[in-house]
TrEMBL record:
It is found in: Cell membrane. Residues 8-253 form the ABC transporter domain. The chain holds residues 344 to 596 of 603 of the full protein. This is Metal-dependent hydrolase. It comes from Deinococcus arenae. Signal peptide: none annotated.
Amino acid sequence: PQPGAPLLEVERAVKQFGGLRAVSDVSFSLRAGEILGLIGPNGAGKSTLFNLVTGVSPATGGRVTLGGQDVTRLPARQIHRLGVARTFQHVHLQPDQTLLANTMMGGYARGRAGLLASLLHLERAEEAALHHEALRQLERVGLGPHAHTLAGNLALGQQRILEIARALVADPTLLLLDEPAAGLRYGEKLELITLLRRLRDDGVTILIVEHDMNLVMTLVDRLVVMNSGEKLAEGNPDEIRAHPAVREAYLGV
Ligand code: ADP
Ligand code: MG
């Protein structure tokens, strides 16, 4: 998509878990080339919103469109194939597999019928292409020299970067990051900011959930603030810092 073109549209999204409305009537949109931050206290509904955008756990109400296409009811695999990749709040890696093998899994997931079927049906040429692509993405995020190390040997910060490489193998237009800086040291956070800016400059649109306010305010173009399942505010970092309801409910000032 052209920079600035509407990419993701979430319209009055609702996610009901029994009696709990984890996401309640939330609307926002994301333009190609933007970095949008999603913030709010624990339990605000941020990860749930990620799950309904990615099809992991679909909305019980409202609509999600991607480049104008309604994806509200599409399975995760199909949304992934449309160019949406993500990382999870808790690291999802195979510790006894190499970085290369872990990164390649981001491509299998995009296959026709899930991981197992893809492994069985993957042509040798496809396998070679995926291998090449995984190495390329590891180099892109700075983990190239460790391609043949076991993922379990990495420090937490590097594991989080590895998850980004795995998401990038699918060549996403939209990348969703759920607390990518959790547990990272200061220097690793600076490297993460540099990496995410570089990805954006390469045409990847980014939606990021992050608790580190310094990091998020430095990185993003706009923010959506959630509280108790609802959208509390939306705006650029200066507007959010000055927003009375945000200061009261979230920043605690
Ligand atoms: P956040 O990521 O903002 O911390 P979540 O989206 O994880 O918040 O959770 C929002 C609310 O929804 C919380 O009250 C949480 O307990 C609830 N919740 C999340 N997932 C489920 C689920 N699968 N079943 C029931 N309740 C859930
Ligand atoms: Mg969460």
